[in-house]
Amino acid sequence: MVHGNERIAAQEFDCFESGEKEEQMARFSEKFLLGAATAAHQVEGNNIHSDYWIQEHLKHSQFSEPSGAAVDHYNRYQEDILLLKEAGLNAYRFSIEWARIEPEEGSFDQEELGHYIEMVDFCLAQGVEPVVTLHHFSSPAWLIRRGGWEDEKTVGCFERYVRYVLPALAGKVRYICTINEANMRIQLEALMKDMMQRMQHAAMTNKEKAESMQKKAGDVQVGINMQSDMMAAAMDSAAAFGFQDPRKLATFVSPGSTAGDLIVMKAHLAAKKVIRELAPEIKVGLTLSLHDLQAYPGGEAYAETEWADEFLHYLPFIEEDDFLGCQCYTRKCFDESGSVDARDAVSFTQMGYENYPKAIGNVLARVAEKFHGDLIVTENGIATEDDAVRRVYIDRATESVAACIARGLPVKGYFYWSLLDNFEWQRGFAMTFGLIAVDRENGFARHPKESLAYLGSLRS
């Protein structure tokens, strides 16, 4: 899906075509971490021991297609890292897949751990800073069967996994994100409640309800597929993990309770304690899914409540972290009735939310008012078929990041999402975020886009 407005936005890039102009645009220092990000399940392929793999293969699956071999990054990571380096980028954020490391509870796979250490070593050999995420949405299937992210025992399980992995990373990795988008479960809970209330009062056909819910799913920054047989999918998913009640299923990307939210924070604190104990030189933090929240007259209270839920109530758990990973793709607007579409929106992305690149700078500035550690943009990007639109987005987003640095904010890095076109969770392979296209029909051939080189040109 490419909107006509994306084509219009692409024309803004005409003034950046010459190499001379691109060199003048370099806006980040040599030491600034300028890179791209991936998540293991979305790029590696054949993650057969994870909760996602099971859900992708159900009769009534919410996934538009299974991940399969994904984009074969597991076998092709060297090629991908070299493309990143050759474009001028100096950092790569990627995740370690817990389900590979501990496929059965208490049983660890040293060979799989070795694979990730080889990735770290290859990055270092190329002069690329590896930034490692320990948990990026997907979990071992056994963890979900025993209660998942609503079970207090998950904290100890995560701590055990981190304690196993950490010694191999010590002395090699300088930055670790414990948990990706630690607030995602609460965001999904709020989304589902809002959707259910809307649907109960709406005289719509099932098709119209599904379309309305899919549009509303753009409120969360993850690939959610809303379909008319959601109840059948929920029942199948619950049964696959041994539950009769779908509400008992607690994957990381399912609606979470207040108690479940606290379990995620406890898991982060436990992981941080292990890292500080075994490798105190490593800078540790987590990442949060954040929006640029804007209020029209009458919407101020809604925006403030949303910010408290999305960010402020996590401060007691992260205030002693070394850095915060800020992940922002767009804005959300509010008026006296609550969340509304932006009145001046021009174009939208494949994901359904507004193309609004300067949101990231606004979020960094607001976060810095309360969080006083370093800031890293661990994800920011756009899903679009038009790479000229992607370049405009990167230009405007990084311009807003550079402005924050000029104001004295401690922003240490920017990671575009994503290095590769990949498996966008329940939305499958149709969402194209990548700086590199992958031909999955012809041997997973890589085709770097112009946006990759453009991003690399922004570092001096």
From TrEMBL:
<keyword id="KW-0326">Glycosidase</keyword>
<dbReference type="GO" id="GO:0005975">
    <property type="term" value="P:carbohydrate metabolic process"/>
</dbReference>
<dbReference type="Pfam" id="PF00232">
    <property type="entry name" value="Glyco_hydro_1"/>
</dbReference>
<dbReference type="InterPro" id="IPR001360">
    <property type="entry name" value="Glyco_hydro_1"/>
</dbReference>
<keyword id="KW-0378">Hydrolase</keyword>
<protein>
    <submittedName>
        <fullName>Glycosyl hydrolase, family 1</fullName>
    </submittedName>
</protein>
<dbReference type="GO" id="GO:0008422">
    <property type="term" value="F:beta-glucosidase activity"/>
</dbReference>
<comment type="similarity">
    <text>Belongs to the glycosyl hydrolase 1 family.</text>
</comment>
<dbReference type="InterPro" id="IPR017853">
    <property type="entry name" value="GH"/>
</dbReference>
